[in-house]
């Protein structure tokens, strides 16, 4: 049976004025025995959000064991090569502790307006970004990709993810499941995701969602 682990996602924006405060909080969370910290992601939202990679980088420098998880990163807001580089750098610098929780967003339309990405394209863009991330993290040599939204022409990512056989762990945000009486608001592609990060899961749906999770 898999080991049960616990994480926590404080309101990081309350510590925006002090990197030292963010680091002290992360260290305290580790001392208290939690297994992971979570950082959300929005650009122009009704409440403030700090940049997740900045927060997790500070936390990584003040901890040695905590897993560092985005919960969740809104994939379509990012240029895929820069995202692959940021994630690989943080994963390597933290000793392989990054978990990249991803979703397609949509609850904050101004997030997409801020980066001039049509909100209706978010799912298809996320599909392409996932493919690009995996290839940049795992393939040796140069990578070429030709999609509808993104193109790469013989580029190479350095550093790659921490180990060739273990790219950054990627979790999908599960807002819903058709089989469980909910609408699906996220991308699901076999072989590109390592697990699910449920959002707003209620007791009467939990059992159904558990059955939908594929275990290796």
Descriptive keywords:
216 residues, alpha/beta, TIM Barrel, two-stranded antiparallel sheet, globular
Which helices and strands, and how do they pair?
Blueprint: E1 7-8, H1 19-31, E2 36-39, H2 52-62, E3 67-74, H3 80-93, E4 98-103, H4 109-114, H5 122-138, E5 143-146, E6 151-155, E7 169-174, E8 195-198, H6 203-212
Parallel strand pairs: 1-2, 2-3, 3-4, 4-7, 7-8
Antiparallel strand pairs: 5-6
Helix pairs in contact: 1-2, 2-3, 3-5
Could you characterize what this model shows?
With 216 residues, this protein is an alpha/beta fold. It has helices at residues 19-31, 52-62, 80-93, 109-114, 122-138, 203-212; strands at residues 7-8, 36-39, 67-74, 98-103, 143-146, 151-155, 169-174, 195-198. The strands form 2 sheets. A 6-stranded parallel sheet has the order 1-2-3-4-7-8, with helices on one face. A two-stranded antiparallel ribbon has the order 5-6. Helix 1 packs across helix 2. The two termini are 13 Å apart.
């Amino acid at each position: 049976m898999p080991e049960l682990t616990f994480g926590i996602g404080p309101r990081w924006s309350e510590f925006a004025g002090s990197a030292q405060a963010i680091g002290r909080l992360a260290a305290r969370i580790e001392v208290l025995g939690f297994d992971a910290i979570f950082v959300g992601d929005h650009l122009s939202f009704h409440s403030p959000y700090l940049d997740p990679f900045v927060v997790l980088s500070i936390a990584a420098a003040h901890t040695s064991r905590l897993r560092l998880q985005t919960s969740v990163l809104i994939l379509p807001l990012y240029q895929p090569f820069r995202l692959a580089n940021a994630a690989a750098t943080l994963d390597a610098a933290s000793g392989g502790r990054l978990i990249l929780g991803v979703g397609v967003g949509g609850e904050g339309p101004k997030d997409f307006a801020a980066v001039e990405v049509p909100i209706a394209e978010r799912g298809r863009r996320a599909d392409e970004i996932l493919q690009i991330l995996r290839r940049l993290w795992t393939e040796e040599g140069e990578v070429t990709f030709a999609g509808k939204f993104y193109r790469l022409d013989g580029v190479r990512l350095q550093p790659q993810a921490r180990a060739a056989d273990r790219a950054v762990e990627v979790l999908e945000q599960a807002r819903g499941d058709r089989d469980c009486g909910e609408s699906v608001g996220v991308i699901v592609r076999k072989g590109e995701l390592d697990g699910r990060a449920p959002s707003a899961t209620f007791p009467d749906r939990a059992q159904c969602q558990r059955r939908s999770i594929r275990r290796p």
